[in-house]
Amino acid sequence: YYLKVTDSSGADILWPPGGSIAPYTFYVGPLEEVWCENFNSGDGGFTHALLDGTDQEGADDWIYGSPGGLSGDPVEAYSGQEIWGNDRGGGNYNGAYQSNITNRLTSVPVDIGSDTTLILQYRRWLNVEDGQYDHARVYANDAVVWENHSSGQRAGGENTEDVDWVLHTLRLDNLSNPLSLGWEIESDGGLELGGWNIDDICLYRISEDAQIPDTGDSSFLPDDTGDNIPGTQDSGKGINLSPVCGC
Fold first, then answer.
1. Helix, strand, coil percentages for the chain (3-state, nearest 5)
2. What φ, ψ does residue 205 adopt, rounded to 5°?
3. How far apart are CA 58 and CA 74, in angstroms?
4. Which of 128, 152, 168, 203 is exposed most, by the fewest CB atoms within 10 A?
5. What pLDDT, in 10s, does the model give residues 116-146?
6. What is the C-alpha separation between 113 and 115, in angstroms, rounded?
7. Could you give phi then psi for residue 20, rounded to 5 degrees?
8. Does the predicted TM-score (pTM) go above 0.85?
9. Residue 75: burial class (beta carbons within 10 Å; 0-12, 13-18, 19+)
10. In 156-173, which positions are buried (b, 16+ CB within 10 angstroms) versus exposed (e)?
11. Residue 46's CB: how many other CB atoms inside 10 A?
12. Which residues, 6 or more positions from 170, have their beta carbon under 8 angstroms from its beta carbon?
């Protein structure tokens, strides 16, 4: 979801600033924790690698530690002191990922037992060029489960530029055990931004008791057409929600 306010002069103000490009996401319903990592006691055993591009200093720029606040990056972690992120700045680093590279951060393998559907939630502070040119991806094993917005236009300009620690919620389906999560940057030869900053990752299973509470108010539940009552996000009359998952 995102919020849009129109002031007395007719100007629209969005929060988060990206609006539909980079909205907030959430989950409604009981969840059971499977695995969490907040990096407060170490790097979590995560690994990283350069997958494509010239192997030079900073090409694989995943760094564990305190954020540096450069190129749109945060100045502090969401919790504790340390995070994983692309190029935290300092020395020869300016806070931005390099051009013409693909690199990826990968979690430890997580034993998810017989679960084939899980909810992933984590805090992100992401700055990446329009997906027409640069790509930020989230992986579940080898499957892409999320990618940044693309305008589909040569002019680009519809960048994903977080300005706070966004709660990013994803439903992961058709999973196999064990599960490894990945965060990737693929860049072209043009504009480079601050890239990924990641903190407080959790995997949850949907509780068997999960159900939509019967409050007697169906005003924000889908009707038979899939539209919401009284309106949708685009109409400005309501917030377009799923009854279970806002992801």
1. 0, 35, 60
2. -95, 150
3. 19
4. 152
5. 999 999 999 999 999 999 999 999 999 999 9
6. 6
7. -70, -15
8. no
9. exposed
10. bebbbbbeebbebbbbbe
11. 21
12. 25, 119, 120, 121, 138, 145, 146, 247
Instruction: Please answer whether residues 147 and 131 qualify as being in contact, where contact means their C-beta atoms are separated by less than 8 angstroms.
Output: yes
Q: How many helices (H) and strands (E) does the chain have?
A: 0, 17
Give the pair of three-digit tokens for residue 113.
């037992």
Instruction: Give me the residues paired with residue 118 across strands.
Output: 172
CB neighbours of 54 closer than 8 A, spacing ≥ 6?
100, 101
Q: Is the dihedral of CA 137, 114, 209, 34 positive or negative?
A: negative
Per-residue pLDDT of the chain (247 residues; tens, 9 = 90+): 999 999 999 999 999 999 999 999 999 999 999 999 999 999 999 999 999 999 999 999 999 999 999 999 999 999 999 999 999 887 888 999 999 999 999 999 999 999 999 999 999 999 999 999 999 999 999 999 999 999 999 999 999 999 999 999 999 999 999 999 999 999 999 899 999 999 999 999 998 765 545 545 444 333 333 333 233 333 333 333 333 344 4
One-letter amino acid for residue 247 of the chain: C
Supply the DSSP string of 169-210, one letter for each residue: EEEE-S--SSB-EEEEEE--SS----B-EEEEEEEEEEPTT-
Amino acid at the residue 231: G
Closest CA to 194 of 106, 83, 118, 109: 83
Which residues 6+ apart lie within 8 Å of 62 measured at CB?
48, 84, 85, 86, 103, 105
